[in-house]
Amino acid sequence: MANPLLADDSTQQVRIYIINLDRSRDRWERLCSQAVEYDLDVTRIPGVDGRAIAEKDRVDFQPSSFIHYNGRQLLPGEYGCYRSHIRALEQFVATGDKMAIIMEDDVDLNDRLIPRAIAAIESVSGARLVKLVNHRLVGFKPVCETAEKDVVGRCMHGPQGSAACYIVNRKAAMNLLVTLKPLLLPYDVALERGWSTGVETFTTQENLVEFSPYRADTTIGKRVHYRAVKRHFLLRLTAHWFRTCDQLRRWRYAIGVKR
């Protein structure tokens, strides 16, 4: 059960938006069941199926620029992921709400998600975003402890992987809708680059949600798909140089963090 002292106030402050493809009905039903169990109000964001959109019809996307920064072609699933998150941010901004939790449908809800997420975003200042789940944390630099006893900070190394769950305030979401266009990097990589987006971006040291069994059945792409679109090593030199420079920017961003 949710904390009775925080449940009503938290529900008024933040909505949970869940990105879900029409064909992934079983995932949505699982999350709806959890929402009922934990008395959470969730809003479904119809996911964009990148495979159903022809390359010539992709908006906010420049193929040559993406190859320059990544050394490979964009996967259809990556485009769908990007457009789905942009759709979620747009819907959140349109409500006028103060903040929102945006999730993908391969993580599970829990009864402490909202109060812990709010405590995390309120523990730091500025137009901000806090990632609530990551695939990896290397060189984590703590910034502060939240009222819920979670530790918030930044990572010296990355990318951390995953845009499966994060909390964002209104001003930050409005910034992201500008600075994340056009699509130059995979969405999860672009999201955590606060030095580029202008959004104060942090992460929790521990994941606030767990991945569901659906994580293994990714709708974006598997290793074999990424390998198939990679260019020859020599043709990826621009990408290697970009990643080296970006790592230096990440170090500076993490070291210079202020609460």
CATH architecture: Alpha-Beta Complex
Low-confidence stretches: 1-8
- Please provide the ordered H/E string of secondary-structure elements: HEHEHHEHEEEEHHHEHH
At the third CATH level, what is the topology name? Spore Coat Polysaccharide Biosynthesis Protein SpsA, Chain A
- Tally of helical segments: 10
Mean pLDDT: 91
Distance between the termini: 31 Å
CATH top level class name: Alpha Beta
Label the overall shape. globular
Strand order of the largest sheet: 2-1-3-7-4-8-6-5
Tell me the major beta sheet. 8 strands, mixed
Radius of gyration: 18 Å
Which structural class matches the secondary elements? alpha/beta
Strand tally is: 8
Helix fraction? Answer: 25-40%
User: Which percent band covers the strand fraction?
Assistant: 15-25%
Task: List the domain count as a whole number.
Answer: 1
Organism: Rhizobium freirei PRF 81
Pfam family, one: Glyco_transf_25
Domain Glycosyl transferase family: 15-189
GO molecular function: transferase activity
Structure description:
The chain has 259 residues and is α/β, with parallel strands linked by helices. The protein has one domain (7-208, 219-255): Alpha-Beta Complex (Spore Coat Polysaccharide Biosynthesis Protein SpsA, Chain A), CATH 3.90.550. The chain has ten helices and eight strands. An eight-stranded mixed beta sheet has the order 2-1-3-7-4-8-6-5. α3 crosses α10 and α4 (76-95) packs antiparallel against α6 (170-179). The longest helix has 20 residues, at 76-95. It is globular, with a radius of gyration of 18 Å.
